[in-house]
Amino acid sequence: MAVDFEPHELWSEAARRDRHAFYARVRAAGEPVPQIDPVTGKRFWVLARHADVRSGLRHPDIGHEVHRHQTGPAAARSRVPVREADRLGARQLISLDPPDHTRLRGFINTAFTPRTVARLETRIEALVDGLLADARRRGTVDGVGDLGDPVPVAIIADLIGIPPEDRERFRAWSAMMISGGTAWAAATGQFAAYLDDLAAKRRADPRDDLLSALVALQIAGDSLDRDELVAMIQLLLVAGQETTVDLIANGILALLSNPDQWQLLKDDPSLAAAAVEEIIRYDGPVEIAPPRYTFQLIEIGGGVIPPFEIVALSVLGADRDPEVFTDPDVFDIKRSDAKHHIGFGHGIHFCLGAPLARLEGRIMFEKIAQQLPDLRLLAEPDQVRGVNPRLTALPLAV
Ligand code: HEM
């Protein structure tokens, strides 16, 4: 039962060492599990069953814009960001509920189509071929820094239409905005000013890129305003970086730690697309979906969550739920139930970049299997612990 949980257990050494054991206990609790955030002191509620996480992700009374539902001082406190970086953050698709979310998603769905993504295929192939040739020459590589990192940022820059001469600056801003550290707000301000300038150029002289498409786009007489445009581009950049790097690094680790699966992929590299789905299910980049609030008392997961409290929906826990996946702790690239994973989310915020992440992942694993057949782990990987841990180094011999 939920009372068996310590208030900060999610951050405990034991839960961080074995996240899956922790979420197995949450699923078994049969009710939302309260935890206290050690930094903010706020209570939030963890859910980890597949059915509960899905229902939380699509619940109309669980969302982001809590101030719209509150009254009095609480509402006033959670409104009106002062810094530009916070103001832009509040205008991001991922932080909004309908109707604003629906409107912004309509714009980006129109501009960022499956065709836009398919057009990037040859560029991704060339980039990956180059990285792997380099890896063969060097003999040893870091799976994170040398194989994972370079692809997503280069492809997103291409997609947006960042000119070659600005790529280095773009890469630096991107790293600072993702780090969320002290440089984050300053980098966001500089990036916003840079985009204002580039958007003006594309308005005057459109190219075949996403920025030109977004500045020109009119839907029923409506268009994106300046903050919406900057926030959208910024979100694409931030949401698709670490996640895709993690997909590549976690995938290499899972394959090399399961030699039978690695052999299967080498024997038949056309399994790469299936392997990507299994990697996301088995060790996906997202542990807990971005936090949401209850807008009223919600009955969910066998219990109730009071109004205006934070809900932590564990995608990782859901994707190891034995109710949905046979032998969920087994990494099996040929499993038929991998398609039920919710590693890209579910409902209205379903990952906009999923087709791109899938394409990048498929090409990467296909080519690694073909071109680096002797790949092996040289040492234990390094990682940052904490909630949403990530690999920071993955030493490999080619
Ligand atoms: C949303 C995962 C790659 C752009 C999401 C969500 C998840 C996710 C779980 C839902 C968040 C929520 O419900 O609050 C992933 C994973 C990726 C990946 C695992 C890589 C393996 C990308 C890429 C891009 C991207 C490459 C951009 C090109 C977005 C955007 C949203 C989103 C814009 C917000 C959509 C909305 O709020 O309507 N992603 N993502 N993602 N993702 Fe991804």
TrEMBL record:
Keywords: Heme, Iron, Metal-binding, Monooxygenase, Oxidoreductase
Pfam short name (any one): p450
UniProt cross-references to CDD domains, sorted A to Z: CYP107-like (cd11029)
GO MF annotation: an example: iron ion binding
A single BP term in Gene Ontology: antibiotic biosynthetic process
The UniProt record lists the keyword Metal-binding: yes
Family, per entry: Belongs to the cytochrome P450 family.
Descriptive protein name: Cytochrome P450 hydroxylase
Species this chain originates from: Rugosimonospora africana
